[in-house]
């Protein structure tokens, strides 16, 4: 009998995606290995956080928690937590927020204890995860600068990520300098891709809006230092011309939006819940086979 059930195919695909994501996270946690991971693969790991299967999202969150709180995963993986902003699972979204707050505090405490080693700031300070998030959002499959719903979803992710970073109200100039520097750069993967670059600049404008909304009553001095951007994600433009263009609609509303309530896709079904990712391989195969037989018999009688 061929295992052609749509439910089974979705389960198997989710399981394979999860296994691949876990392998990437395990490799990234090894010293000196994360730079060997292609950015395209890093992006696929980020999209796993918005996978249709709830179990995939939960296991990925647990793995990120373990790697980030132990500081074994590099800084760029902190940005992945931001994609839980639009998760319809309230408990999972709340846990991700708690992990983000903890990781921010851990990294700031580390910098206080190692204040003499300022050369590593761009690999430790949690604010430096923002450029990575901007780059990921520019490559997101649903990103469309001409679609207001797409911009709203992107804005929700930025609000969710930036609010914990801005709680102390002491890093606004630094964050603005980071976004300004990104807006003057181009994509390192495809520097001449105007579509991707415009998406990136639109995300920068949204980030500006979030930061300005939080510090509208505060007079900000310019950030006195320089910031470093990862050469993996960004490259200098061919022509050094200031990028002052606005890439989002005029008078755009930057206020945060509520995360919409939605159904967690077909794989979150009572007949298949806990059959993926939560049992041993042999037991999973046996239960999946029984499920397919039951579905096949049901179709015969329908």
Largest sheet: 2 strands, antiparallel
Overall shape: globular
The string of secondary-structure elements, in order, is HHHHHHHHEHEH
Radius of gyration: 21 Å
- Tell me the strand percentage band: under 5%
Low-confidence stretches: 260-281
The proportion of residues forming helix, as a percent range, comes to 40-55%
Let me know the average pLDDT: 84
N→C terminal distance: 19 Å
- Strand arrangement in the largest pleated sheet: 1-2
The structure class reads mainly alpha
What is the number of strand segments? Answer: 2
- The number of helical segments is 10
Quick summary:
With 302 residues, this protein is mainly alpha-helical. It has 10 helices and 2 strands. The chain has helices spanning 6-28, 39-48, 54-69, 90-113, 121-124, 129-139, 148-165, 172-183, 194-214, 281-301, and strands spanning 186-187, 234-235.
């Amino acid at each position: 009998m061929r295992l052609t059930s749509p439910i089974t195919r979705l389960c198997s695909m989710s399981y394979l995606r999860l296994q691949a994501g876990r392998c990437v996270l395990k490799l990234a946690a090894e010293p000196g290995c994360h730079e060997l991971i292609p950015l395209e693969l890093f992006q696929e790991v980020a999209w796993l956080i918005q996978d249709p299967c709830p179990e995939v999202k939960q296991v990925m969150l647990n793995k990120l928690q373990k790697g980030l709180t132990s500081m074994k995963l590099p800084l760029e993986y902190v940005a992945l937590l931001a994609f839980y902003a639009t998760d319809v699972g309230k408990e999972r979204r709340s846990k991700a927020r708690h992990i983000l707050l903890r990781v921010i505090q851990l990294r700031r405490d580390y910098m206080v204890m190692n204040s003499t080693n300022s050369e590593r700031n761009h690999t430790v300070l949690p604010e430096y995860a923002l450029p990575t998030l901007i780059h990921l959002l520019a490559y997101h499959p649903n990103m469309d600068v001409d679609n207001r719903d797409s911009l709203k979803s992107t804005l929700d992710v930025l609000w969710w990520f930036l609010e914990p970073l801005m709680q102390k109200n002491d890093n606004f100039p630094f964050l603005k300098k980071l976004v300004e520097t990104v807006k003057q750069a181009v994509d390192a993967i495809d520097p001449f891709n105007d579509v991707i670059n415009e998406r990136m600049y639109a995300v920068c404008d949204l980030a500006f809006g979030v930061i300005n909304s939080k510090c509208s009553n505060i007079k900000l001095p310019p950030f006195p230092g320089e910031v470093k951007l990862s050469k993996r994600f960004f490259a200098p433009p061919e022509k050094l011309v200031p990028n002052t263009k606005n890439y989002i609609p005029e008078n755009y509303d930057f206020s945060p939006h509520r995360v919409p309530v939605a159904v967690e896709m077909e794989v979150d079904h009572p007949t298949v819940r806990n059959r993926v990712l939560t049992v041993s391989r042999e037991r999973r195969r046996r239960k999946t086979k029984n499920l397919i037989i039951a579905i096949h018999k049901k179709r015969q009688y329908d």
